[in-house]
Structures are given as C-alpha cells and as structure tokens.
Amino acid sequence: MSAAIEITATLCFALAVLHTFSVSIFARLAHRGGPHAGTWHLLAEVEVVFGAWAFVLLLAMAALTDVPTAVKYLDDSNFTEPLFVFAIMVVAASRPVLELARLLLQGAVRLLPVRRELGMFLLIMALVPLVGSLITEPAAMTLAAILLRDGYFRAGSARFKYLTLGVLFVNVSIGGVLTAYAAPPVLMVASAFNWDTAYMLAHFGGRAAAAVLVNAVALTWICRADAIAAAAAGRPSRQEPGEPGAAGGHTARPPVPAWVMAVHLLFLAGVVLGAHHPPVFLGLLMLFIGFCSAYKRYQSRLLIKEGLLVGFFLAGLVVLGGLQQWWLQDLLGGLPPLVLYWGAAALTALTDNAALTYLGSLVHGTGEAWRVMLVAGAVTGGGLTVIANAPNPAGFALLKGSFPGESISAGKLLLAALAPTLVAAAAFLLP
User: How many whole angstroms separate alpha carbon 222 and alpha carbon 227?
Assistant: First the structure.
C-alpha cells in the first residue's frame, strides 16, 4: 500500500479509538431528541464505531487509488475471527448451554465455605475465565457476561458493575492462555513461535491462573455486600420474559432435557474445533439454528443481532488494523524485552492484542524472552478497553444495558481495569 493510504488508515484508526471514548457524548445528543436523534444513537453504539470508520477508510482508499484496489484489500483481509466470535456467541448464549453452566457452577458452589451468592459470583469471575482455555475466550466471555447480567447486574450500583466488568475483561484475557488455541493473541503466534499447549502451561498457565484467582477473590471480598444485595434484588424469574401467559403474566418454560443440553454441547465443541475453518463452523451454526427452531420450547431468543454487531465491530478492527504494520512493527522490534512488555500492554489498549502479537511475530531475529514478553504484555493489557481483546465487544454488548444510560464509559472501564491489570503484570513479571 502507498504511504498516503497507510497514513489515512492510521488517521481513521486514531479517530475510531477517539470515537470509542466519546460515545457518551453522542448518547446524550440522542437522548435530547430531534430530527437527527437516530443518527446520534447510531454513533453512540460502540459496536458500530470501527465498522463505520472502516467504511470511511475503504471510501478513501477507493478515492486515492481505485475501487478494485479497495475491494482487493477487503478480499485479502482475514475475517475468520469476527465470523467465529459471531458463531460462538450464538451457540454459547443458548438457553441449554447456560442452564448446563448454571448447574455445574451450582454444584461447585456447594464445595465452597461461603454464602451461595458470593460463591457463585466468585466462580463466575474465576472459573469461567479459566475454562476459556478449553472453550475459547469468546465463549467464556459470553457465558460469564450472561450469568452476571441475569444474576447480579439486574440491580447493584454502577461502582460494583464497573469493578466487576474490569476484572471480567482482564481475567478472560489472561485466563485463556493455558492452551495454545483459545486466546486470540496466542493463537496468532503459536505456529510461528512453535508454542504448543504444554509450552503455554509451563510458561504462562500457573501465573495466569494465580492472577485470575487473586483478582476474583479480591473483587468478591471488596464487593461482597454489593454482590449479595444485587443477587437478592435482581434474582431472575424462572419464566421466559416476553411470553404472555393465560393469567396476564408469563408462561413458565419447560425444563431443558439432558439430551438437548448434550446436543448443544456437541454443537459448541464442533464450533470450537472448527474455529479456523469458517465453512465448518458457519455450517454448524446453520444446523444449530435449525435444531433450535425444531425444539424452540427449550430455547430462549438466540443472540443473532448481538452477535452480528460484535462481528461487525471486529471486522472493522480487522480492516483498520491491517494497515498499521508500517509503524507498529518497527516500534515493537526496537524494544528490549521488559520495555516491550509494558509497551505491548499499553498498545493493546489502543489496538487489538491479536493484531499486536501477529505483527510482533513478523519481526525477525527475536529471542525467546522477547517473544514471551510480547505475548504476556498483550494479554495483560487485554482488559483495559473494549477494543483490546476480541471477546470484549461480546461482553460489552451483553452487559451495556445494565449500566446507567445503557452505556459503558470507556474511561471508567479503563480505571476499573487498572488494578486487576497490575495484578496480572505482577504475576507475569515476578520471578
């Protein structure tokens, strides 16, 4: 690409990042009403931001060169990750999968010497992110976000919700590094660096698990009163919202049979195993939607809209991030390992950590310590912003309706994620 296109792409990327930190301004304009309220509301949707600016970039690219060049760039971009996150969100957020997750967590809660509400909260914040190393980080984020939304975010203070969201984003980012395939920033470099699951367990697993547990326990202790009160005030009904019953209320949903849970679990496993092959996991998704339609009495609404919005967000990030190599790669290559760690953690807040590690993998002549610090820094900073880690937009989309004004402040999220990020940093850096 020409220098003019690269500079234009970086300008669009910078404006998109600035836009994500300014959505509250557009939300306030939308709430005032007026003939353009709909446009302001659209610009206030974080999931739309990067897709919209990616469209601006493509128009600029077509103007600076020609339409075929812009189309070719789009064709050459890899959209596997946005498509996978869309598919895994839909499957993981289905009622049978959520019911199975609740049953397993409720069984585990009985083993903990704490109140049930606190025990469930602790396991959502600790165990679910670590399970992300098996079912992938986007699936773990989807499960944790819905469990928090239904069990704790129907009530509770804004402070409690922001602290929880900050820890959730950080824990999911570092909780997926116990294997070589579940965390996007690890997946991007595993083949190039010759890292397998045994390597990840030996060099990252123990430290990541320790940080996840410390963050979860500290949050549960600090917010114990809020968690108990929120669980009691917002305890969800056992009825399906929006389904009118004969008595003017709601019809009770039938329990989900074990065989339906098993079928959903097989679909989830199939999507995870086919994560690198869009025809495979999208084909499974189509079959899954058909199965849900055939047995809709055991289902809740599938998150098609939410999944599409998150996929659109990530696709925009792919388009914009694909032209940042001209400055990011040289910047990363010139840093010593320790400086690289902090640099990667900071840069991750401004760009997707998977894109960051991929660009780092292209730097020639790097040593093992440099590579470890690159990935460790990238996953450490993965909770600081909504764009820092691919699963974050999924959690954002599922939880934003529970926050004041149905919007999540980027600045408050950054502040809430700082402490758990420093815990992760200590875990990865201390001998």
Answer: 10
Q: Which of 61, 94, 98 is closest to 77 using CA atoms?
A: 61
Report DSSP letters for 99-114, one per residue: HHHHHHHHHHHTTSSS
Distances (CA, A) of 50 to 17, 112, 155, 160, 311: 8, 42, 31, 28, 11
Q: Give the pLDDT confidence of 240-277 residue by residue, as tens digits.
A: 433 434 344 445 678 999 999 999 999 999 999 999 89
**3-class state of residue 251 by DSSP:** strand
Tokens of 400: 């934003």
Beta bridge mates, 151 = none
353: nearest Cα among 325, 383, 329, 396: 383
- Spatial separation of the C-alpha atoms in residues 355 and 15, rounded to whole Å: 18
- 244 beta partners: 250
Rounded CA-CA distance 143/133 in Å is 13
User: The whole model's pTM is what?
Assistant: 0.87
Coil, helix or strand at residue 137: helix
Tokens 């590579």, residue located: 371
Question: What 8-state DSSP symbol labels residue 156?
Answer: S
